[in-house]
Amino acid sequence: MRHVYLVTFFVAALLVSILGLRGVTFTRPPLDVFPEWAFPGMKYQPKFRPQAASEFFADGRSDRMPPEHTVMRGMLAEDDHFYRGKDNAGAFVRSFPSDLTVNLALLERGRDQYAIYCQVCHGVSGDGNGITLRYGMGSLTTNGNYHTDRIRAMTDGELYNVIVNGSASKVMMPYADKLVPADRWAVVAYIRALQRAQQGTAADVTDAAARQTLGIQ
Ligand code: HEC
Fold first, then answer.
1. pTM to 2 decimals?
2. How many structural domains are present in the chain?
């Protein structure tokens, strides 16, 4: 028991002297404890690192281009309405894609995504009075106010397109990398809800009890 520390120290010193210190640059390869010839495995597979050269291919590159007119599996974005907000003729659509149901769940999803990605600039109610306004994001209350006639008149496809490609002047950057197509439509639906919310009139309140509470004749 007395020699435990001593023995441990010598074993450690012995191992380091045989195997060498790891993490140090060697002039010769360090001793291989499990040599490939004795333990054939996948340790030394031939492989190409990204953007490496290759003598096998005529163009000398190891990276291969996808064959022409092919699409990666699961990446076929065929539906123009859903993926680009356009109809077959290339005009911006005035409706939501048919495979999306506009319901409360979609609006709630839109509200969540709006709060994460848009609200800092466009504000809780969409009037452009977000926190970034105080830090110099100037054109928000004019060009980024959803309650102006100009943005109210924008079609659903155009709103979708702003999310994909940014604003017309490119002052607002695209959000396509943050929102998947279904979520972009959810945000568009929520923008419509925000716009509708600012346009309510007394006539919208149809419930008799609610009318009484609000004092509407
Ligand atoms: C970093 C701040 C910022 C964020 C975040 C932001 N916007 Fe904007 N947005 C702007 C500004 C600034 C404008 C005015 C653009 C201009 O002057 O061209 C604008 C304009 C717009 C317009 C009108 C575009 C046009 O061409 O007139 C729409 C629609 C819009 N934003 C939607 C969104 C949506 C949806 C999101 C979230 C996915 C979002 N924005 C996130 C800053 C932002």
1. 0.75
2. 1
